[in-house]
Specification:
Length: 307
């Protein structure tokens, strides 16, 4: 009878494991197709640095990534421990195939390679809706939590971020500040509106747009220095693309132009230089989002014209 009890217990335990595995199975629909998650992926290739950042914080081990142009806070992945699977725009299909991944995660930069990657392994396309940046980030992080069994950790992170976002929004709205989002690209200037990739500043963080008529193109709307004086924003949030993509003229050099110094933002010490990698390359991660919120918090510090 004693042996029968042990056997019965083992049978029940096995049944529970099988039931849990079945219950954990789910289908993920995305804009390029579907992915069937039947068990927690073990060998993962990640092409999106925001996802890479999130998985690293959540202590999910990855096998391969494009290792070029990694920011300092992801430098641990620039080592032989991880397989370099190409670039953000050109996957190395042979290396990916050799890894035999359970899951490949991509974003917009790899969308054209989706079909070929899907032939190697289940491929999940994750994107951020520029018109709903924070909502998209929450959905993406919750999906990662569901896939990798990190739901509680994700909810803790999102709760902390929501408190910070609400606090910044309250102060920004109370200030009534009209702000402009500007990218400096090796001397050229472009601006971004509320529905752009950087629209969280207006949508969720409460800064009124200094210009309501900005074209929401992917790469922003090209402008001149004279435009800045005409719009005359009270704050300018600057992304230095040259610091990411390479260039000979940095954002602070560009913004030292005498015309820029005529703006309210310059005169009030409210030209804020944003972390270029966090905003431009690793958007949607966990560390990167924290860095982004830290950047915006500098607006409420003593007047300054450099970060």
């Amino acid at each position: 009878m004693k042996n029968f009890g042990i056997v019965f217990t083992l049978i029940v335990a096995c049944f529970l494991v099988i039931s849990m595995t079945t219950e954990a199975s789910f289908m993920v629909e995305h804009s390029l197709g579907t992915v069937n998650i039947t068990e927690t992926p073990q060998t993962i290739v990640v092409f999106d640095y925001g996802v890479l950042d999130a998985l690293d914080v959540l202590e999910v081990t990855i096998a391969g990534l494009p290792a070029s142009n990694l920011p300092a806070f992801l430098s641990k992945f620039n080592s032989a421990e991880y397989v370099n699977v190409g670039t953000l725009f050109e996957p190395d299909f042979e290396k990916i195939y050799a890894l035999k991944p359970d899951l490949i995660i991509i974003s917009s930069r790899q969308a054209e390679q989706y079909d070929e990657l899907s032939r190697i392994a289940p491929t999940l396309y994750m994107e951020i809706d520029n018109g709903n940046w924070w909502g998209s980030v929450q959905s993406n992080l919750r999906l990662l939590g569901q896939i990798f069994g990190k739901e509680a950790e994700v909810e803790d992170v999102l709760g902390r971020f929501q408190q910070r976002i609400d606090g910044i929004r309250e102060r920004a709205e109370a200030s009534g500040t009209k702000a402009l989002i500007l990218m400096a690209n090796d001397g050229a200037l472009s601006v971004y509106g509320a529905e752009s990739r950087f629209g969280i500043i207006h949508q969720d963080l409460g800064f009124a747009p200094a210009d309501q008529a900005i074209d929401d193109a992917t790469h922003g709307q090209n402008v001149s220095f004279e435009y800045l004086v005409r719009i005359n924003p009270e704050a300018i949030f600057v992304i230095d693309r040259a610091a990411v993509a390479g260039g000979s003229i940095g954002a602070q050099q560009v913004m030292s132009n005498p015309i820029v110094q005529m703006t309210k933002a310059s005169q009030g010490g409210k030209i804020i230089y944003l972390h270029p990698h966090a905003w431009y390359v690793v958007s949607g991660g966990i560390r990167s989002t924290e860095i982004m919120l830290d950047d915006i918090d500098t607006f409420f510090q003593e007047s300054r014209d450099t970060k």
